Amino acid sequence: MTKSNEVLIFDTTLRDGEQSPGATMTHDEKLEIAEMLDDMGVDIIEAGFPIASEGDFQAVSEIAKLAKSATICGLSRANYKDIDRCWEAVKHAKSPRIHTFIGTSPLHRAIPNLDMDEMAERIHDTVTHARNLCDNVQWSPMDATRTEWDYLCRVVEIAIKAGATTINIPDTVGYTAPVESADLIRNLIATVPGADDAIFATHCHNDLGMATANSLAAVEGGARQIECTINGLGERAGNTALEEVVMALKVRGDIMPYTTKIDTRKIMNISRRVATVSGFAVQFNKAIVGKNAFAHESGIHQDGMLKNRETFEVMKPEDVGLAGTSLPLGKHSGRAALRAKLNELGFDLADNQLNDVFVRFKDLADRKKEVFDDDLMALVTQNDAED
Ligand code: KIV
Ligand code: ZN
């Protein structure tokens, strides 16, 4: 398969994201998020784990029915019962996908107590079974990054021969470093017979804070599907954040010449909605979607931003769906930002008046974390009264 430069975005907010303890969403909330994902251009939505509960089954089935353009995928373990249930849920989609997985590392092989040959046979049989139901089958060797190299090559080859169309390489415990992530995909593609018949995907967890870097490195190595979640929601430290990989590829196309179909202007809206329905607030300094991602408080930064926004911003807030940059006033702010804010509020002060207000503003800012519009108006009015 010739590798185009388009990277498919596989969103698993509704499956891996929802597996975060405490992030459970209701049926209606899942449908709403799925519609938003579909609308923003996500290629594949992993809508749930149909065998896990009746609720998950219903949600995946409904999402499959309503999706307009995204492929709808469900997760299943490596057994026929799971795969059949998954197919029952996703089969309603215009473009359905079955995703089946099994843990292949020594630690994970010990759990079902299968030896290497028995597991290889199980992979062959379950992928074949899934492929008999659905043309679009994804297979994942869970904990791939801690699986012995020879065995990983062997099972990936088996899965491709049995009909898997996407091979996902999960860094299940967020253990890999970027250089390894790129090499792993590159070497698999170069080594495994038939690798060209499949798309390779990367699925990274963020335990060491390297999920975004690892996903982008995997793309450099030849992966053409990134698995991710909105706000990086996911078990433990979460999954790769969709907004981070998508914006990194958009902003740094000069050194990473890959495209996605995501309408980035819809990022902020869905980020807020996922935060609300999952109950997982976004940290203030979170890349792309944090409250402070486009906010500048210090005088030097505010002055720079008022002269040229590129001084301290590498992307436009409008490109992620924000109305604009914000210049909150606090004790680090300077005269330029204060004047700009007062102008915005309809005050055009002479230099000496501004100086007076500025002194009182600093005094207030020392006592308050943020100075709001009402505070400023009070300061100006006080100034007028004293004049
Ligand atoms: O992290 C992981 O290994 C997974 C698999 C089920 C793909 O989420
Ligand atoms: Zn995962």
UniProtKB/TrEMBL annotation:
Keyword set includes Manganese: yes
Keywords: Amino-acid biosynthesis, Branched-chain amino acid biosynthesis, Cytoplasm, Leucine biosynthesis, Manganese, Metal-binding, Transferase
GO MF entries: 2-isopropylmalate synthase activity; acetyl-CoA C-acetyltransferase activity; manganese ion binding
Cellular component GO terms held in the UniProt record: cytosol
Pyruvate carboxyltransferase domain: residues covered: 7-268
Gene Ontology biological process: L-leucine biosynthetic process
EC top class, as a word: transferase
Cofactor: Mn(2+)
Known function: Catalyzes the condensation of the acetyl group of acetyl-CoA with 3-methyl-2-oxobutanoate (2-ketoisovalerate) to form 3-carboxy-3-hydroxy-4-methylpentanoate (2-isopropylmalate).
Similarity annotation: Belongs to the alpha-IPM synthase/homocitrate synthase family. LeuA type 1 subfamily.
Protein name as annotated: 2-isopropylmalate synthase
Organism: Yoonia maricola
Classification lineage: Bacteria, Pseudomonadati, Pseudomonadota, Alphaproteobacteria, Rhodobacterales
Residues of the full protein shown: 1 to 387 of 519
